[in-house]
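Tip: read the tokens left to right.
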């Protein structure tokens, strides 16, 4: 065996190790790319599905809010109409009372005005 033979064997082993390491690196890189591509597809799919679900939820909230608003508007309108009718009735009763007893109405108005003036001028 010549002194160069162990060096030659060592060099071949080193090259073989480098080739195996490169192959392992290439295999790992390819696997990582496949995993990244899969993750990208899954993430995009999840994003699209979530977007659709959120849009559906937003539409449902919008419809519920519209229905609630319409119900509230109807109730408010009914209460307003009821109070307007009652105010008209009170106005008619007051007008009738003033026509029947004008002096009493003037006295009552004077007394209320006097009372309010005293309350408002207090410090």
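Filled-in amino acids:
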């Amino acid at each position: 065996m010549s002194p160069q033979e162990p060096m030659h064997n060592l060099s071949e082993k080193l090259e073989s190790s480098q080739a195996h390491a490169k192959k392992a690196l290439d295999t790992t890189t390819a696997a990582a790319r496949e995993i990244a591509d899969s993750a990208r597809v899954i993430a995009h799919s999840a994003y699209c599905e979530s977007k659709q679900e959120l849009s559906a939820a937003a539409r449902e909230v919008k419809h519920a809010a519209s229905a609630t608003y319409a119900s509230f508007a109807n109730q408010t309108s009914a209460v307003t109409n009821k109070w307007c009718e009652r105010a008209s009735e009170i106005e008619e009763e007051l007008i009738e009372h003033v026509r029947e007893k004008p002096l009493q109405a003037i006295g009552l108005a004077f007394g209320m005005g006097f009372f309010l003036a005293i309350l408002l001028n207090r410090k």
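DSSP finds two helices and no strands in the chain. The chain has a mean pLDDT of 90.
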